Amino acid sequence: MSSERSIVGKNFKKVDGVKLVTGRPAFTDDIHLQGMLIGKILPSTRAHARIKNIDTSKAKALPGVHAVLTYRDVPRVPHTTAGQAWPEPSPKDTYLLDSKVRFVGDRVAAVAAESRAIAEEALRLIEVEYEDLPPVLEIEQAMAPGAPVIHDEPDSTGIHDASRNIAGHIFKEIGSVDRGFREADYIFEREFRTQRQQHCPIEPHVTISWLDPDNRLVIRTSTQVPYHARRQVAQILQIPLQRVHVVKPRIGGGFGGKQEMLLEDICGALALATRRPVKIEYTREEEFYMARSRHPQILRMKMGVKRDGEIVASQLVVLATTGAYGSHATTVQGNTGSKVLPLYRAPNMRFECHVVYTNAPVAGAFRGYGCPQGFFAQESLVDEIAHELKMDPIEFRRKNMIRLGDVDELSAELGEGRRGLPRRIRSCGLPECLEQGAAAIDWERKRKAPPASNGHLRRGVGVACSMQGSGIAGIDWACAMIKLNEDGSFHLLVGASDVGAGADTVLAQIAAETLGVSLDKITVTSGDTDITPFDVGAYASSTTIISGGAVKKTAEKVRDHIVKLASKMLNVPPDNLICRDNHVVAKCGCDKSVTIADLAMHATYREKLQIIDSASHFITDSPPPFCAQFADVEVDTETGEIRVLHLVTAVDCGVPINPRQAEGQAEGAVAQSLGYGFTEEMVLDGQGRMINPSFLDYKILSSKDMPKLTTILVETEEPLGPYGAKSIGEVAINTATPAVLNAVFHATGIRFTKLPVRPEDVLRALSAKGGA
Amino acid sequence: MFDHIQAFHRPRNIQEAVRLIHDGEGAGRFLAGGTDLAVQADRSVRFLVDISKLGLNYIRPSGSGWVIGATATMAELEKSPAIRALANGILAQAAALCGSVQNRNVATLGGNLMNASPAADTATPLLALDAVVTFADAQGQRTAALAGFFSGPHGTAAGGMLLLEVEVPQPPAGARVGWSFQKLGRTQSDISLVNAAVGLGLEPDHRVKWVRIALGAVAPTPMRAPNAEALLVGRKLEPAIIDEAAAEVAREVRPISDVRASADYRRQMSAVLVKRALRECARQTGYAL
Amino acid sequence: MNTIEIGVKINGESKRWRIAPGDLLLDVLRREGYYGVKRGCESGECGACTVLLDGKAINSCVMFAAQADGCELLTIEGLAQGDTLDPIQDAFLECGAVQCGYCTPGMILNAKAFLAQQPDPSEDEVRDMLAGNLCRCTGYLKPVEAVLAAAEACRQKAKDR
Asked: Does domain A37-133+202-253+258-290 have CATH number 3.40.190.10?
């Protein structure tokens, strides 16, 4: 079947590639608007305080300042900034501007001025009198009796227990883990801790907003979620949704940080107040602590196993913090349970989680969405169990891992804020991923006898597995529209957000394959709420399977219209016609055909018919992609440095629509995972201020830091995905960290349970163990 | 961002440059590459004096040593055959690790020294090489040993004066001479959390004739380790002696804890880097330890 | 507000610009419409603002525009010849080295200057050069492959001549 495809499964160049390599103006800030003002947000310098008094008179009087907004000037509408489908499951605890600040970086005021310099000067002229409140900075302190209440306002909703700073609480059990642990021969339990990681998209958040000639509010913004942004802006600014027009240009990376309505509301408010175009562009520093980040967690993982290695009970208890506001608070942490535990079959599973507020930068969606934390814990614990049972780590996983045909009941318990749907595994290439990955790293040989230690250098290999989802079952949905132009080309209109991962290309490939035309016949317009049909946006690894599913359905409908007209033109029954190579041809017998171009011209001017159609699509499951990661490392016992020599990433993403693009996704995810494990951390001081908000002090990996990478795509056919596709956007971000740490254990016998693992942490552990 | 800067001067010669800064009474800054200046949010700066075109980017012989103009860039140092040959290339290696290629193309030796970060990569080898700096003001020129030039983090003895050139006297000659530069960072492109430059000269019987040990990022300024040096001179170079010297280095450094590393780790790594450097130097002399 | 005038030759065209003394080159370039020069960090760390100044790759966000007076500048807009892409641009597309594309102009220009000096680089040398361009999308493998492929293509073309 695959061999009959001419476009899907092939490495076509990105449809927007030429634009990008020639630096054409395609990103949000690449326009000039007459009279545009620069907007800037005044951030709080306190972690927890009431604004007793705020005097903006000097700022307003500064020549060139057109607006200064405080909480007194804007509507008070409780909302979440999380880019989620309505009704959003996150607490509605955020306000456009408020009289209370809850973290260093929280909004105090906003200005719009004729230049950046004037805007910055205006911020300096705003006089704020704070009434300091004691802050809650440590995650364990948040629920302590007598802890300061961060959300003491009466009008927020959806908070589990504001009086105890609990944004959310999750508890789900299948079977009975208490019984399971009683039945187990061995019980293993460990606590793990993870840190705050920032997305660091190379393009920081940027939004430009203006009133068009019809007085509609246009918002041109770097976002993964144009439709959610539209809805939320309308709600927050209290203007009709019909009056809001969101446009998503090329995006310079999102990774979940832009699955958020972040600047659109305040930028829109300034545009309304000044009746001028306004641009707000985060500096890199602001991007670090005034955007979003990954939820730090304390994870207590416990597994009960039989003597032979069979897991009988698995339990994960998580204490997470969402920072000062609850964006994605319950859903990220829900994933930590629902996507992680079911990787290994167990009749008894329990997941419990408290998500607490702290006076810290706000956490939100970040690639992996709760899974990197969970798989770090689970894959480390599983490695330890295998070691104790003297089983090969791969064998232990093979014995317990989820299989083709399985039904994952835990997912049914943990949906996006409501009861989910059970997940059936209809495609699973994990066994092949393990096999091929192991071969590629030379597992057998290196595991039994690591290359000879060279003095202070120790070698080891490790493995880790993960799965993710493809879209949110029953909630994520998309619509596509396709129209035929008179020259035989097509316009594909999708609400889907290409944030750089190549969605436009993948969707165009699906359309072209289905329509039987070459890829260059497809022009894509995406992410414009006036023009393109609805799409929840680029998150949850949904674009290929959900938006792609909508594209396929739409293309089939359009193909049917084409075939119907061709049938009339050629006098051949429709079921004898096939679309292929930009033609409609008779399948058998007669030599009749017509080019799509001729048919289109005929349709437009003779039939007076626009061939156009649309289709909406969602699925009631979330077929997981699978990943097996192998790491070959060298530990320098004198410096504690961990040198990753080789990383093998074997991924089952179903049928890869564009294999080279899929590889690129895996390679980028692995780089972010290595940063998560070893170099990245948002460090806060005792006053809740981030002390390293720059690339100088917050280290993401460069080309010199990367190990040798081998990416293997294991192909399976997913029945629920267009052409058998699942997803690949996130799954590979979960595994590099635990695979490397498992290799470090193999090399040194030391288990690390706290991220990031820095050389000095390794050195300290080596000394504690008794020297190199 | 720099709206407070009101003038950009391009002086025709050094005298004009120093006079402009002198007359500015603290409001002016010398500008060479700009990579440090453009990042600092110092709103007291009112004007810039561009010294990048005053012909101070030379690398030329001086007596039996070399003199390097203050505006020679890291890239020029990295690629210069003379600097690559000098002391087995420790200064060239340090320059090559001074940030990205985009930074190295414009960042200057003078800028690196005048910024006076305790971690300045070029300062460490220059200290090991007993470099001498010349700086100028309206009154004239002064020369000072690099040792003692740094007064603290981001502070130098030059004050508002213009750094003109750095002289590197000819390193000690001999058949058994080795030089090594070592650097540790959190990633491959990072400010040093520790760096070390070591020079070693051995007698035919492997006794240490002379040794120089310099370290960066482990004290308020780049430093030499005189106690460790003294410990080594005259002793036969053996693993045990190297360990002793490294332990002495760990006692001499005064590191702080910051976002890059803890003081403890820096202390330990000082010893490790010096050990590695000494072994590397020995290897260069042909002595297999 | 004091202004000064600078003259540059940018992408082969002579231009005179009126700037404030403290203007940074990145700001002036984007103001003049060279949107391919990207703002990523404003501290010389990420390389998204890389342009070529007299043939050398520099971070325009940490250079004062006045420093570029009398110099030749090359931005990404000046690389292709009409519809004919530079071999490096071609290679980035062929190798799948472009994802979001925000770091891409900087990488391509840095590689352009590099290959002019080192037409037959090793992978390590390419990685050392690309370390000045941070990317959050690709994990760097395909960009490295693209630079090596471009080098090979250029060497082949030189041989064929």
From this structure: no
